[in-house]
Amino acid sequence: MMQSATQLLLLALVLPLLAVPGILLARNQPNLREAISLLTGAALFIVNLCLFSLGEGGVVLVEILPRLAISLELQPLGLVFGLVASFLWPITTLYAIGYMRGHDEDNQARFYVFFAIAISAVMGLAYSGNLFTLFVFYEIVTFSTYPLVTHAGTEKALKGGRTYLSLLLGTSIVFFIPAMIGTWFFAGNLDFQPGGVFGEEVSPIALSVLLVLFAFGIGKAALMPFHRWLPAAMVAPTPVSALLHAVAVVKAGVFSVVTVVVYIFGIDTVAKLPITPFLVYLAGASILLASLVAMRQDNFKSRLAYSTVSQLGYITLGAFLASEAAVAGSLLHIVMHAFGKITLFFCAGALYVAHHKSQISEFDGMGRVMPITFIAFTLGALSIIGLPPLGGVWSKWFLMMGALDSGYMIMLAVLSISSLLNIVYLLEIPARAFLKPAPEGATLQEARSSSVLAMTITALMCIALFIYGSDIYEFIRSARLT
Asked: What whole-number distance in Å separates Cα of residue 439 and Cα of residue 364?
């Protein structure tokens, strides 16, 4: 069984890369090129399902120094992330086929190539066996997604790409690397261990400094004030925005934060640190401030981007609340937000391609023109808001329970107020679309069928996650969180 796990972990890492030469060779044959991407994505999901059935195993890829290696390891938190990312890869590819063809995008083969490389890096990050491995794949995610952010090649795209790269690399260099070096100095290793790697001899002040360095160094988690890269990256095509928000980049960030809290520090240690209340309140501030900024955005993708900054705050808040319920709620919110937010971005792209509309003020009556799109949007929005029968209700429930367990009653208020703000800035969109008259002369016209199918699948998954939310929660709790 261990041998099977080793082979499957290697396959999960390598399989997306095997698609790259096929995509390049078929770059002038769109049907074949996209079939390779779809089939590889489906195969990767099957590999992750097989890993789920095994439950344990690991492999050392490269030994750099004694007690320092690039290694992969199978553990429940990584399995959750790996299953979500691998499921959404072929769905996003299906959506991208309709979007890229409908918008007549240039360099479509390059898009699919870097998408595959990014997914490979995500698999490496999900199954990292230690902090050094996580850092390596974390940076590969950054570099492999940069060409996607700058895909259009315009000055605006290049400017957004510079902001994207400079902030993510800057936070890694200034904060993440020193945090990793400090961890090695105090603990003597970077291996992930339930309960953390630090001994009792390490002072709370030193641990507090390290925790702050990690919180800001993992810039992909978009904790304020290091969040500007995310709105800047919205210059990318909508399938890339969906990748950034739901499949790869931001989820890599918040997954890394949760992993560091659980397996480098340990929940019990984080709960006792003097810096923890500051980080809890900072995450709470990010939730509310980003929601308030989102309400002021008329550009559809900008509103969704600031919504993501707010929702990522939920996940980092759960990690810093440092209770079993809160951390499990954080992991659950990674899943719920992934499906809800990718649905919203799919709808944004469908509107742009079919009707060239990108401003919310232009959406009056569009629900009568694109009913499937706006029904899907409504389901995704209700899930993010946290209303039954959509999956998002469970992650918010356990985050609130975690706030109570940790004694942060004010965070219960923050989460409640944020949900109300979610209603205001998200449900305004379907309200405009369905309750106002359709534009004069408008006829029924949805996006291409592949894009509509993709958003329908992800919207229905928001309902399925409500039904199976407790099963996912119990699986997360099977991990040794404390």
From this structure: 7
pLDDT tens, residue by residue, 271-323? 999 999 999 999 999 999 999 999 999 998 889 989 988 999 999 999 999 88
Q: How far apart are CA 280 and CA 267, in angstroms?
A: 14
- CA of 133: how far to CAs of 65, 84, 122, 179, in Å? 13, 20, 12, 14
CA angle 401, 406, 410 (to 5 degrees): 80
CA 290 – CA 306 distance, rounded (Å): 5
Beta partners for 359? Answer: 299
Amino acid sitting at position 433: A
Distances (CA, A) of 26 to 21, 103, 108, 427: 9, 20, 11, 42
Residue among 360, 384, 379 nearest 433 (CA): 360
pLDDT in tens, 418-444: 999 999 999 999 999 999 888 777 778
Helix (H) or strand (E) holding 158: helix 155-171
Residues 239, 96 contacting (CB under 8 angstroms): yes
CB contact set of 476 (below 8 Å; sequence gap of 6+): 76, 77, 80, 328, 331, 332
Distance between CA 481 and CA 77 in Å, rounded? 9
Q: Give dist(CA 124, CA 44) in Å, integer.
A: 13
Q: Look at residue 457 and give its three-state secondary structure.
A: helix
Query: Model's pTM, two decimal places?
Result: 0.92
Distance in angstroms (rounded) separating the CA atoms of residues 426 and 275: 34
The token duo for 452 is 């509509």
DSSP 25-67: HTTT-HHHHHHHHHHHHHHHHHHHHHHHHH---EEEEEEEETT
CA distance 479 to 410: 28
User: Could you give the C-alpha distances from 197 to 187, 192, 265, 286, in angstroms and in order?
Assistant: 6, 7, 6, 29
Contacts with 431 (C-beta within 8 Å, 6 or more apart), sequence order: none
3-state SS, one letter per residue, for 107-140: CHHHHHHHHHHHHHHHHHHHCECEHHHHHHHHHH
Tokens 């290049």 identify what position? Answer: 158
- Angstrom distance (rounded) from CA 100 to CA 83: 25
Q: Characterise 194 by phi-psi region: left (phi > 0), alpha (psi -120 to 50), beta (else).
A: beta
**Domain chopping of the chain, boundaries:** 1-265, 275-482
